[in-house]
Input
Amino acid sequence: MEWKHDWGLTARVWLTMFLLFIVYLVLMSILWMLGFGVGLIVLLAVVVAFVQYFFSDKLVLWSTHARIISEDEYPDLHQIVRKLCNEADLPMPRIAIMPSPVPNAFATGRSPKHAVVACTDSILKLLNRDELEAVLGHELSHVKNRDILTMTLASFVAMIAAILMQSFLFSALLGGGRRNGGALILIGIASVFIWVIANLLMLALSRYREFAADRGSALITRNPQALISALNKISGRMDMVPPQAKAKVEGANAFYIIPALSGNKIMELFSTHPPLEKRIAQLDKIDAELHGY
Output
């Protein structure tokens, strides 16, 4: 098996974009029929998307307290990433270390040329070399699949709905808009409904992205069992991490190889990742294909 274009991922991306576009048209139609201008709202969403796309690496590094490291500081880690990049035909990304008791890794950046791959200091202590290679292969697969661009575009409708919800709540708190009270209530209800739908579509796409990245890691490293072992280790250690420590990094769960859930059932319901059992089942199947049994 060789690295091939993931047509399943491509089809899901286009289907999600199409459905989100339909949702967007519905929202804009409601606003237009009620006589509300939408230009400022769309412009604000474009600005947010622009910042999110072009500064995603800086924002994620800042929010997670991760720092870019030099090759002199972590020569083995750089060597592993360079080897994987050669296998995946990717340029060398910047590498960062995040101080956290939560064993995890993530990738960010708007393109392969502007990518950052980060590890928590605890995952370096937890995994052996093969397992670490598999995890980093997963993150580099996100880079190769341009997942940051995909999710930035997919989040556009949700951002507009979120802006409308906040505007509705702000207006309600100030007691404004009494003359158009009925219209404001309708917009508030519609924006909540559309925000939920848009986020459910994005979560479904995000979960498939994780399957695609697992598959990419298996093809880059030729060692699916190493990723299975790593996922089991990370998941097992995650149960031992205090909820307070997981809560601190929960906001970045969409980036991690395994989400750090603090026990909040709502967070589990709207998970960005597929169940561990399904990920392992897929990797076992890939392993059988690779080795012909």
